[in-house]
Amino acid sequence: MLFESDDSDTEGAMDQKQDDFYKSLRSRIGAWLKDKGPTYRHAHLLLLAPDLFHLLCRLSFDKRIPAGQRAKLAVAIAYFVSPLDLIPEVFLGPVAFLDDVAIAAYALNSVINSGQGEIARELWAGHGDLLNVVQNIIAKLDDALGGGLPKRIQSFLE
After folding, report:
1. CA angle, corner 74, sides to 109 and 135, nearest 5?
2. Pairing with 76, which of 39, 69, 85, 124 sits 20 to 30 Å away (CA)?
3. What is the number of H-type helices and E-type strands within the chain?
């Protein structure tokens, strides 16, 4: 049902859930950053979380994306909404969305590298060029978290 749905009521309900999660995420991150101040080192990465989640959802429902790629996107979406992940939001607050941003960036990088970059760019509602955004995230997180991160995240997504 995640990938194939002809029922417009179901899709409308999913759109509402995505929109609610998107607004909630943006609000939580914004409030946290307001407290922390704009000098927080990874503020720009955290602010990308809602836009990346939005794009993951849009791509996962787009029938132009091959099923294998949509499955990777679904894993990234599940990771975003799961309370159980490497850096739990429950304990650390929005700073813990950095691992979600990393998973999203690597999933999107996979979609872009599989030849679906134009579709991803078409559906991107964030600021800036999507390819540059994804490459910037990967470079910053790889630098901050160590050189083996890409292989570990790729393994997770596969």
Report:
1. 15
2. 39
3. 8, 0
User: Nearest Cα to 18, choosing from 67, 69, 59?
Assistant: 59
How far apart CA 57 and CA 146 sit, in angstroms, is: 28
Cβ-Cβ contacts under 8 Å for 99 (sequence gap 6 or more): 79, 85, 86, 87
**Identity of the amino acid at 156:** F
**CA–CA distance, 140 with 5 (Å, rounded to integer):** 37
Given pLDDT bands bounded at 50, 70 and 90, which one contains residue 7? very low
Tell me what pLDDT residue 47 has.
Answer: 81
The domain limits of the chain are 8-157
Residue identified by tokens 């690597």 is 106
For residues 108 and 77, the answer to whether their CB atoms sit within 8 Å is no
Task: Give the sign of the dihedral formed by CA 89, CA 94, CA 96, CA 101.
Answer: positive
Q: At what angle do helices 98-111 and 43-61 cross, to 10 degrees?
A: 40
Query: What pLDDT is attached to residue 5?
Result: 41
